[in-house]
């Protein structure tokens, strides 16, 4: 077996977590629309409203700036207000969109993330990111000091596709200059791990948050668990 030389990480629920439990509905949203109010809504209507509002991000993942992200999030919140009959205003939508992009306190590092990256870097591993994300991630990568350890980035908003599209993994492999079998990919979603495996990359599932469907892949529960698991690949 080829020696592992590179570890690719997803970001969401792998190295980072949303403080509110949702990537698009942050603390500011729940200040305006309390959880109790949301919980009283018909949950099928609420889920449909959320999915409808978010669909444009799935249909067109390409995004070129934080300003574009603010504009698109503003439309997201306006659609959500309308579909779920929340009664939010245009100003509410703008406020939430700006907060989502500019407020660094909407996300946390998952415990052991930074220490794990440092340990891997010190051990000589190449470290990459493969993530479905948006332009606001750049300032968070810097604020959390992840950029001190990460060698390369593959972002959906730059490529214009979302995982499990294999172009995400092809891009990461090309940037690494390594063979697929020399790489591990850590993600919480089985469909993304299957796509990585189809490319010859070793899949590892992180089961950090509740409700994750698990499969046949090796699992870890926090980033630092990868350090012990790596011994199996040497």
Account of the 3D structure:
The N and C termini lie close together (8 Å). The model has no long low-confidence stretch (mean pLDDT 97). The protein is built from eleven helices and eight strands. The strands form two sheets. A six-stranded parallel sheet has the order 5-4-1-6-7-8, sandwiched between helices. It has helices at 27-32, 35-39, 43-59, 66-84, 90-102, 113-122, 137-143, 156-159, 166-176, 190-198, 226-229, and strands at 6-9, 16-18, 107-109, 126-131, 152-155, 183-187, 202-206, 219-220. The protein is elongated and about 55 Å long. With 234 residues, it is α/β, with parallel strands linked by helices. Helix 10 (190-198) links the parallel strand 6 (183-187) and strand 7 (202-206). The longest helix is centred in the N-terminal third of the chain and has 19 residues, at 66-84.
In short:
With 234 residues, the chain is an alpha/beta fold.
Question: How many individual β-strands?
Answer: 8
Count the DSSP helices.
Answer: 11
Quote the distance from N terminus to C terminus: 8 Å
- For the residues shown, what is the average pLDDT? 97
Neighbour order of strands in the largest sheet: 5-4-1-6-7-8
The unreliable regions are none
The percentage of residues in β strands lies in 5-15%
Structural class: alpha/beta
Apparent shape? elongated
Q: Major sheet, described briefly?
A: 6 strands, parallel
Helix content: 40-55%
Compute the gyration radius: what is it?
18 Å
The helix/strand order is: EEHHHHHEHEHEHHEHEEH
């Amino acid at each position: 077996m080829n020696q592992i030389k590179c570890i690719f990480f997803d970001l969401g629920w792998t190295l980072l977590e949303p403080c509110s439990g949702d990537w698009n509905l942050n603390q500011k949203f729940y200040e305006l629309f309390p959880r109790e109010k949301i919980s009283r809504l018909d949950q099928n209507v609420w889920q449909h409203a959320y999915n409808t509002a978010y669909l444009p991000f799935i249909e067109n993942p390409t995004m070129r700036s934080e300003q574009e992200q603010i504009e698109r999030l503003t439309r997201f919140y306006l659609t959500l207000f309308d579909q779920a009959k929340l009664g939010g205003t245009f100003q509410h939508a703008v406020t939430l969109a700006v907060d989502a992009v500019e407020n660094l306190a909407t996300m946390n590092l998952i415990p052991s993330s930074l220490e794990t990256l440092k340990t891997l870097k010190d051990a000589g591993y190449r470290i990459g990111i493969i993530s479905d994300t948006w332009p606001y991630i750049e300032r968070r990568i810097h604020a959390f000091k992840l950029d001190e350890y990460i060698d390369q980035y593959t972002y959906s908003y730059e490529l214009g596709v979302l995982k499990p599209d294999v172009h995400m993994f092809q891009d990461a492999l090309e940037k690494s200059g390594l063979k697929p079998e020399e790489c591990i990919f850590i993600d919480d979603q089985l469909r993304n791990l299957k796509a990585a495996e189809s490319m010859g990359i070793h899949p590892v599932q992180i089961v950090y948050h509740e409700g994750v469907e698990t499969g046949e892949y090796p699992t870890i529960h926090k980033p630092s668990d990868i350090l012990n698991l790596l011994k199996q690949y040497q």
